[in-house]
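Reagents: none. Just compute today. LysR substrate-binding domain-containing protein.
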Amino acid sequence: MSRDLLPHLPVILAVARRGGFAAAAKELGMSASAVSHSVRMVEDRLGLPLFARTTRSVSLTDWGQLLVDTAGPSISGLDDALERLKSAQGSVSGLLRLTVAQPFTSMAITPVVKEMLRRYPDLKIELDSDKRFVDIVAGGFDAGVRLGGSIDQDMKTFRLTPPFRTIMAAAPSYIERRGLPNSLEDLANHDCMSYRMPSGGIYDWELESGTGEVRVPSSGSIIVNDWSIALEFALEGLGIIYMFEPMLADELAGGSLVEVLPEASVEETGLFLYYPERTANNPKLRAFIDTARSVLRRRSATGAPDPQASINRSRPSASS
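Predicted 3D structure written out:
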């Protein structure tokens, strides 16, 4: 059957269902002549009579019955699917896909995901943790989470954390054995744990020198590509770690780590959710942002930062 006949099939089904042209026209909101025209067009193209007509009734022929039995379920299924799409347009359900750079999940995402699943039981959330920068459109993601300085200018953003510092820290056992560095130059004489980037290079520590930011090569005996492993080694006294301060909050508060050269720490812009502008009205994404806003408000004793705060995009990131 030619595709140009497909729009006329619902008319055939309505006539069969209602047993007449006038009743079908009323159901479809069409004129009786338009209904008759559609039926006649399909019959002419098929070369087969679909209805037996009398002055009192309209009934299906064997050919018409075959068409209704064959095409009817497909047309009805399509109608049902379209209705479900319309009803789901404003609902928070289905799959929300996020790409989250390591190690940001625990810093900003976990409490939001927990609250989302409580609020929206029909929602599924997929988190893809990737050290590399990800094209969220090509990757089929709804949104991503990165440091503000790593986000393309054409993306919409929502702040997930206040600005925070990247610091150096070491275990008391390391400090007892090796002492504390007194300057940035002194770091060359210490075991500074190195991080291998996805590109294969070793990440230089970005530190404040007093006159501006400088890059200091890490020169320790340990090289990792996962910050959580570096933290384990640091707690064992194997070297100085360079990491986002919120990730070390418990260890610093408990004394299992001690900050090193605090005057050399650098300020990061904080973590942001980013997404294409065309998906800004996606119900799942809007629900995530609304939930994140309420979670931030509860967690911050001083009030959450402005969600639309500007982003300083000048700083590079270790994710490249």
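The domain at 3-88 is CATH 1.10.10.10 (Arc Repressor Mutant, subunit A).
Action item: order primers for follow-up constructs.
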